[in-house]
Amino acid sequence: MSNTNKPIDLAHSLSLFNDLWSPKRVATLNDYDIKIAKVSDSFVWHSHKDTDELFLVLSGTLTIQFHPGDGGNVVLGPNQLFIVPKGVEHCPRTENGEEVSILLVEPKGVVNTGEVTDAKLTNAVKDI
Amino acid sequence: MSNTNKPIDLAHSLSLFNDLWSPKRVATLNDYDIKIAKVSDSFVWHSHKDTDELFLVLSGTLTIQFHPGDGGNVVLGPNQLFIVPKGVEHCPRTENGEEVSILLVEPKGVVNTGEVTDAKLTNAVKDI
Fold it and tell me: Per-residue pLDDT tens for B28-78?
């Protein structure tokens, strides 16, 4: 263990960056990453063929869009979470350009855009 | 997927039970459980030999005690998290009988008291 245990303060971690749709790793749990991100407007439709994906909203309102037949869109406010099942296409978005802060839990190595490559949006996770 | 996607509202889920030190599963992420619990006073010293354990405080203040040489106690307030590394003995507690709400992420099947069996405190996870 480290010499001095310190809490990970999500508000502080969020204050350290401003780029959007670019997850930052705040901790690891076995072979999973605990990540935070700031998001605004619409992401890209994508799926993760090998893993579920946990979204927990820390501030603001996030809509996770699904295709018809996949259960309908989910609207998440603070302290609301949703697990996107593996293989299910989804597209997160926010309304009216709101900036929303989220926490994500996924296995290490998962790319935010899944099977899709998007020059603007595909970002490898970075430590913070 | 379910016919109707619904957010998991942690405040609502917390309103559905009052028992202490008895984790409730609100979701699963691959082979991991996403759990919430209400805790008060002191738990039992224990470790989880095969897994890290994520604590995220939702309300109140949680102290996670560690033995000397293991980095010192961690005090977590709302929206602060800590990962207890696998194999490290720890004992969560709250001060002055405060009731604290926490979110836990662990592989399925992890028992809250780890290698220790305590008639009052050992609780299998339940769905909520």
Answer: 999 999 999 999 999 999 999 999 999 999 999 999 999 989 999 999 999
Give the nearest chain B residue to A49 (CA atoms). Answer: B30
**Which domains does chain B show, CATH number per domain?**
10-118 (2.60.120.10)
Distance between CA atoms of residues B18 and B14, nearest Å: 8
Out of A6, A80, A83, whose CB is closest to B10?
Answer: A80
- H, E, C per residue of B56-93: EEEECCEEEEECCCCCCCEEECCCEEEEECCCCCEEEE
Query: What is the arrangement of strands in the sheet containing A62-66, beginning at the earlier edge strand?
Result: A74-76, A62-66, A90-93
Q: Quote the minimal CA–CA distance from B114 to chain A in Å.
A: 16
Gap from B118 CA to chain A (nearest CA, Å): 26
Would an 8 Å CB–CB cutoff place A22 in contact with chain B? no
Residue A11's φ and ψ, nearest 5 degrees, are -65, -40
Question: Looking at this predicted complex, what is its ipTM?
Answer: 0.93
Please, what is the end-to-end C-alpha distance for chain A in angstroms? 19
B75 vs B47, B57, B85, CA distance in Å?
Answer: 18, 10, 16
Q: What is the pLDDT of residues A52-70, one digit of tens each?
A: 999 999 999 999 999 989 9
Q: Give the helix/strand (H/E) hosting A67.
A: none
Q: Which of A44, A42, A64, A61 is nearest to A53 (CA)?
A: A64
Q: In a 10 Å sphere around its CB, with 0-12 CB exposed, 13-18 middle and 19+ buried, how is residue A15 labelled?
A: exposed
Confirm or reject contact between B18 and chain A (CB < 8 A): no
Find the closest chain A residue to B34 by CA distance: A54
